[in-house]
Amino acid sequence: MQNGQFRVMQTVSDLEIGGAQEVVRTLAEHLAEIGCIPVVCAFKDGPLRKEIERKGIPVEVLPERRYSILAFPLFVWEMLWLRRALLEVVKKYQINVIQTHLLRSLDFLALTLRCRTKLLVFWTVQNANFTLREDHLPRHKWLLGPKRLAHRLLYRLAARWVNGFIAVSDEVRTAILEGIGPVEDKITVICNSVDLRRYQQPVDRAAIRRQLGLPANARVMAVVATFKKQKGHCYLVEAARSVVPQFPDLHILLIGDGELREALEAQTKASGLDGHIHFLGTRHDVPDLLGSSDYFVLPSLWEGLPMALVEAMATGLPVIATEVSGTKQVMVSGETGLLVPPGNVPRLQEAMVELLSEPARARAMGTAARHRVEAFFSAQKQVADHMTLFRREWNRSE
Asked: What's the pLDDT score for residue 148?
């Protein structure tokens, strides 16, 4: 089958601003550029829909799930209804390949479609901590253990029929083996990557800083991450308490939003950092904001392969990141930035001071970061790796 004959549906939980959603957008756009026919399917609408449709890529939004397995009759009815809706989308666009992102239980729903049509199904695992966590069950925490066991067994059984797992980093591959079992022959590592064109455009740094109300001589450190426990913002705010007095021209941009925003704003105010930490909310001009910054920091407690980190490196920023899954694969500590242990405020402070104290070294790290992304994490390479996988599995199925 040639490129133009592949009809690939990227299926994601929602179309909000986020790393996995950015992967979906990038894959869809670049699959179209090489002659494939991409479709995006989600179970909740969001701001990325218009941006994807603007590229001429069709987007289908199905209703999000409402019922847990505790409401058993309604749960079964809903699953059957969603399966029918998914099948209609597959038939409408004559889909050959379904690639899922962030679906969990709905992964299995997509897999059942193989019974009705010739179809390849790949599950993308975006996070090393991909098994069920407490935050996935806000109301019924007693179900965590049984559901985690059930998911493990279901994934192990379903691994016989799924065409493959796509792990976004080597450590995610390891996490799949530990969380599901011996499915080595089903896993392909394809790193998340970025469209370099979006992050290497010239920007008017002075104008953007004026719009943000920043001093002309400010040293700007950016963070792009949802405000949730995983991303570790609270450790950065704590670290900034001792760093800002040493570097009063430091300003930190928190780009994103989420459930912990009020708590972080309160922590910032209590730390006396109101004038130095800026909450920008969800933004659609992230490439411009990164282009007007001097440094990037990502204090996550766990990751898969963080898109925000790759985007910052593509922009040419020196980066500070925690030594968690994916970050060690993307960056080289001491060469493209600095790695610190997760949740370690003193080490994060030291890294911030080190980069702020040596601007020439920081600029050299930023240049090295950009070159590393160009060599290993371009969207063109990511799509080429996907196409190699799709062709191989399609030929096996014939």
From this structure: 73
| Whether residue 121 is found in the same domain as residue 234 | no
What separation in angstroms does the CA of 188 have from each of 24, 265, 274, 389? 17, 41, 45, 8
Helical H runs in the chain?
A: 19-33, 48-53, 72-93, 105-112, 144-158, 170-179, 196-199, 205-211, 233-246, 261-270, 286-291, 307-315, 327-330, 345-357, 359-376, 379-397
Residue 146 and residue 205 in one domain: no
- Cβ atoms within 10 Å of 320's Cβ, excluding its own: 30
> Looking at per-residue confidence, does 148 or 173 come out higher?
173
- In tens, the pLDDT along 243-265 reads 999 999 999 999 999 999 999 99
Residue of 2, 11, 23 whose CA lies nearest to 305:
23
Q: Are 230 and 372 found together in one domain?
A: yes
Contact (Cβ atoms closer than 8 angstroms) between residue 243 and residue 352:
yes
Q: Are residues 145 and 229 in the same domain?
A: no
pLDDT for 142: 55
Strand partners, 152: none
Q: If you search the block for the tokens 């766990």, which residue do you land on?
A: 302
Looking at the structure, do residues 33 and 172 belong to the same domain, yes or no? yes
Residue type, 79: M
Residues 242 and 263 in one domain: yes
pTM: 0.86
Q: What 3-state class would DSSP assign to 255?
A: strand
* Residue 147 C-beta-side C-alpha neighbours within 13 Å: 16
Range of the domain at 302: 197-376
Token duo for residue 347: 């080490």
Q: What is the CATH number of the domain that holds 62?
A: 3.40.50.2000
Please give the tally of structural domains in the chain. Answer: 2
> Are 188 and 210 part of one and the same domain?
no
Instruction: Label residue 326 left, alpha or beta by phi (over 0 means left) and psi (-120 to 50 means alpha).
Output: left
Residues 59, 99 within the same domain: yes
